[in-house]
């Protein structure tokens, strides 16, 4: 069921504190932590504490929390003193999504080319 924690979800386990992560920010609705395979000097994932499979499902189900993710992405960028950064939501395996829990990648600290990978 959307919004409910999933026993087999890595990010739900991080939210619950069952899997360690390098948490850099936490709010009532979000958790931000360093990516274990960083693609840039700053590579932080911002996730909702509620479980939705992707950004579109989160936006439809709980738009206020989707907005919280974007606010937290800005806060991460501010804390890391990034003048430029990218926020990426991968949706679907063809786009590179490997964990089926909404998450935004905040990437910066180096030049980023367009189009991305």
UniProtKB/TrEMBL annotation:
The domain of life is Bacteria
What GO molecular function annotation could you give as one example from this UniProt entry?
A: catalytic activity
Q: Where is the active site?
A: 103 (tele-amp-histidine intermediate)
Motif Histidine triad motif, which positions?
Answer: 101-105
Q: Where is the signal peptide?
A: none
HIT domain location is 10-117
- Which is an annotated Pfam family here? HIT
> Per its record, how is this protein called by name?
Histidine triad nucleotide-binding protein
- The organism encoding this protein is Streptomyces fuscichromogenes
